[in-house]
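As a warm-up, study this chain.
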Amino acid sequence: MSYKLVTYDAGKGPRAGIVVRDHVIDAADATRNAAYATTLGILADWAAADARLTEAANAGGGTPIDWKQIKAPIPHPGAIYCVGANYEDHVKEMAAQQGRDPEPDPHTLGLHAFHFIKSSHSVVGTHAHIKSPASKALDYEVELAAVIGKPAAHVSEADALNYVAGYTVANDLSARDFFFRPPLPPTSPFFADWLAHKSFDGSCPLGPWIVPASDVGDVQNLGIRLWVNGELKQDSNTSQMIFTLAEQIAQLSKRITLQPGDVILTGTPAGVGSARGVFLQAGDTVELWCENVGTLTHTIA
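Now compare it with the structure written out below.
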């Protein structure tokens, strides 16, 4: 029996659970392992935990899911690594917006993917009400997020996906108007402010759950979409990634050891608000979907 890993709060504080047939089963109670009371505890023992949670799923039970109780699957990840400009259709979109020719495939230049980091305190769960950070250019970016399930240091590209426990859906919310620091010129090394642009409170909605990697299929061939107030804005496929997830894990692991519970946001496709000059407003509802993973919803308060 397949399951989905969640964090829920039924009035006793956040606890890890599994969703099976629209019911939530407490992970620690079902496995009689107190370490599994949190998703980080489960991910730290992923090789054994996956089998034990599958047994719990087969046993059944639990209580009907109450979406008001469902939190971000990992309320405080160890680290959140976000890749920039990683979908071919998005790169072409940005080039057209800026009136220039698209840059060549970075592989041909010997380049690797580049990543920035969001604070773990920026994470919120599904159905969250997110307060805009006084931005007049709050943008959305639907992304497939990979969750690491065992320490990864200097791993090969061929072996990289074996370090992924599962997948969730993310929105890399971006305050576009906070990125630049006028009157500094673009040539200044202090011109860009990545923290203000990408890592404000609520800037990383995650959820609604983590689907084990074995249930997702080919991670480089998944549909990915985003709607604002029911209007389709982004509609693409993970096959559009320039650097595959395996490449990203291999490259990151050569710089820093990835740990269980770390999250990698793998890039966003075309259709972002900045390409159209239309940004999120108070009251907007954002719905994000990734094939075989699930649907994440939140509103702008």
